[in-house]
């Protein structure tokens, strides 16, 4: 092989290597808010991931929870910020490794209008709006209402609207008597929303959003990523602001018991997917 041809081959190999190195990683965020809102909220984390992983990172979500779940199953996302039941499923069946979870648990709420129903019992025969039928909050509400003596679909209608914004709009317009939302999501609507709704019931707290990474990143990179995410969220000014905005109050490692506790809910989720 001539020196000229060898030089060309080496140049091509170098260009391919650079192109490969520049391929962006994908942070997939479960679509619990609008794509624009999620992009704004998770931008500080995206910047931190780029710094730690030394590779471009982009944020993606999906049109709905079903589409997001399918994209996760396909391995479309390198890192996921996902609902706990999706996270456990991703760990068990889709080659994702747990990284971190918020310090605070998720607190689901049933909210109504200030002049709305006065008790949970008064919801019988009425409509409750929610973001998505597969959302963590929706599954939590199913269990809560069943324990309160309701048969969802018979005694009460839980109607998925596509987003928290749509769910709240349905409540405020009178299309639903109550809405399912979390304390953190209500906070992210801003203080003006608080004056438009009244908390009807606080549901039992549940495991919050989970962060996981795909095993193709490699164990060493995942271990380093986990360490740096905890430092970012708990020690840096940017990370503390990010955590506060999301009502995470910081991040901690995910324990095995956290994940195993989700198994009954994963069973509920699979029942809905059939």
Fold and architecture overview:
Helices cover 48% and strands 18% of the residues. It is of the alpha/beta class and 274 residues long. The chain has 2 domains: 3-105 and 207-273, 3-Layer(aba) Sandwich (D-Maltodextrin-Binding Protein, domain 2), CATH 3.40.190.10; 108-202, D-Maltodextrin-Binding Protein, domain 2. Strands 2-1-3-10-4-11 form a 6-stranded mixed β-sheet, sandwiched between helices. Strand 6, helix 5 (136-147) and strand 7 form a beta-alpha-beta unit. Helix 2 crosses helix 9, helix 2 (35-53) runs antiparallel to helix 10 (237-245) and helix 9 (219-235) crosses helix 10 (237-245). The radius of gyration is 21 Å and the shape is globular.
Main traits of this protein?
D-Maltodextrin-Binding Protein, domain 2; globular; disordered N terminus; 2 domains; 11 strands; 274 residues
Helix and strand arrangement:
Blueprint: H1 3-21, E1 25-29, H2 35-53, E2 57-60, H3 65-73, E3 79-82, H4 84-93, E4 96-102, E5 108-112, E6 127-130, H5 136-147, E7 157-160, H6 164-173, E8 178-182, H7 183-188, H8 191-194, E9 198-202, E10 210-214, H9 219-235, H10 237-245, E11 251-252, H11 256-260, H12 263-273
Parallel strand pairs: 1-2, 1-3, 6-7, 6-8
Antiparallel strand pairs: 3-10, 4-10, 4-11, 5-8, 5-9
